[in-house]
Write a structure and sequence with these properties.
The structure holds two protein chains of two kinds. Chain A is α/β, with parallel strands linked by helices. Chain A is about 40% helix and about 15% strand. In chain A, helix 1 (about 15-30) crosses helix 8 (about 215-225), helix 3 (about 70-75) runs parallel beside helix 4 and helix 4 (about 105-125) runs parallel beside helix 6 (about 150-170). The chains are: A alpha/beta, B mainly alpha.
C-alpha cells in the first residue's frame, strides 16, 4: 500500500472535485496536506473531510502570479517543514468557439491553467521550499485531442504537457520528479450523464469503462507522488479507458 | 437596446449581412446557426447583457425573433 507518512503536500485547486478527492486520499495515506484555492468556503468543507489533524488551509487566488513565491514560502513557514509534493489541479475550462477566443480570453485562460502552473513549479523547486519531491499536474485528454470549443483549454493543457518534459530534465538534478495525468471524460457527482454535450457522451461510450471516477485519479496522483513511482518523470499519463 | 443594434449583434454572431436574415427567419434555414453559434450566443449574452443563457431555452429557439426576445 502507498504510504505518504510525514510527507507535506500542497494541493492547489483543492476546492474542485478532483482536488478534493486528491486531498482526501493523500490524508488517508498519511500525508500532511496543505489545501489551497480561491473558494474558502469550499476549502473548509474539503478540510473537514480530511483524515488526521495536521492539515492546513490557505486560500489563494492563482491569478496573483506575483504572490506565488511568497505563498509557497508561507506554506513552508506553517510548521517549518519543507514540501515534498505539489499537486496542481487548478484550472478553468470555459468553452468558446474560435470566433470568441480573443487574445484577452486566451491570456486569462493561460494565467490560471498555464502561467500559474509554471510559476508554482518554479517556486516549489526552490531548495528552500523543496529539496526532494514529486509534482503531479492535472492535464486533460483535450491536450492533444481537443474538441470544438476547446481551443483555449486545449492550448493551455498542451503547453503544460510539453513543459513537463523540459521541467523533468531541469529538475532531475534537484531530485524532483514531475508528471502529468491526462484524464478523458470525468463526471462530477452533481452532473447527470444525459445533460453532458453529445460529444462528451460519445467519448464516454467510446472509453468503454464509463466516466472516470475522480477517486481513481486521486489514487493515481498519490502513486505518482509516492516512492512507488520512483524513476518515473516527464511523463503524461493517459487515463482514457479503451480509447486507444 | 433597439432592434437595429440587436440585429447588428446577431449579424456579427452569425457572420451574415443584416439583409441576409430577418426576425421571421427560421433558424433551421440558417446553416450558420449551429452548435458553435449557440455557444457564441451564450458568450454574447454574457458580455453584452450580463445574462447566463440557459441551454434548454436555446434548444427551443425556432426563429431569429426567439433570439431577439432574449436580448434584454
Amino acid at each position: 500500500m502507498i504510504k505518504l507518512y510525514n510527507q507535506k503536500i500542497l494541493v492547489m485547486g483543492a476546492s474542485g472535485f478532483i482536488g478534493t478527492q486528491t486531498a482526501i486520499k493523500l490524508s488517508q495515506l498519511g500525508a500532511k496536506v496543505v489545501i489551497s484555492g480561491r473558494d474558502e468556503a469550499k476549502l473548509k468543507k474539503t478540510l473537514s473531510l480530511l483524515e488526521g489533524d495536521e492539515h492546513h488551509l490557505i486560500p489563494f487566488d492563482i491569478s496573483n502570479l506575483d504572490k506565488i513565491s511568497e505563498f509557497t514560502k508561507s506554506v513552508v513557514d506553517l510548521d517549518n517543514q519543507k514540501l515534498s509534493g505539489l499537486v496542481y489541479c487548478s484550472a478553468i475550462f470555459p468553452i468558446r468557439p474560435l470566433k470568441n477566443v480573443t487574445h484577452e480570453f486566451l491570456h486569462n485562460m493561460m494565467v490560471i491553467n498555464y502561467y500559474g502552473f509554471v510559476e508554482f513549479v518554479r517556486c516549489f523547486s526552490d531548495k528552500r521550499v523543496c529539496e526532494k519531491g514529486s509534482i503531479v499536474t492535472l492535464s486533460s485528454y483535450a491536450s492533444n485531442c481537443g474538441d470544438k470549443g476547446q481551443l483555449a483549454y486545449s492550448a493551455t493543457k498542451g503547453a503544460m504537457d510539453s513543459s513537463v518534459i523540459v521541467m523533468a530534465k531541469e529538475l532531475q538534478q534537484k531530485r524532483i520528479r514531475i508528471n502529468s495525468i491526462r484524464p478523458a471524460a470525468l463526471l462530477p457527482e452533481d452532473i447527470e450523464f444525459c445533460t453532458l454535450p453529445m460529444t462528451i457522451q460519445e467519448l464516454i461510450k467510446d472509453m468503454g469503462t464509463g466516466p472516470i471516477n475522480p477517486i481513481n485519479i486521486a489514487e493515481q496522483i498519490a502513486f505518482l507522488l509516492s516512492e512507488y513511482s520512483s524513476g518515473m518523470t516527464g511523463k503524461c499519463l493517459d487515463v482514457k479507458g479503451y480509447l486507444l | 437596446m433597439d432592434l437595429q443594434k440587436k440585429m447588428e449583434l446577431l449579424s456579427e454572431l452569425l457572420e451574415l449581412e443584416i439583409d441576409d436574415f430577418s426576425p421571421e427567419t427560421n433558424l433551421d434555414d440558417l446553416e450558420e446557426w449551429d452548435s458553435l453559434a449557440a455557444i457564441s450566443y451564450v458568450v454574447m449574452m454574457d458580455e453584452e447583457f450580463g445574462v447566463v443563457a440557459n441551454p434548454n431555452e436555446i434548444k427551443k429557439f425556432k426563429t431569429v425573433q426567439d433570439i431577439l426576445d432574449t436580448m434584454n
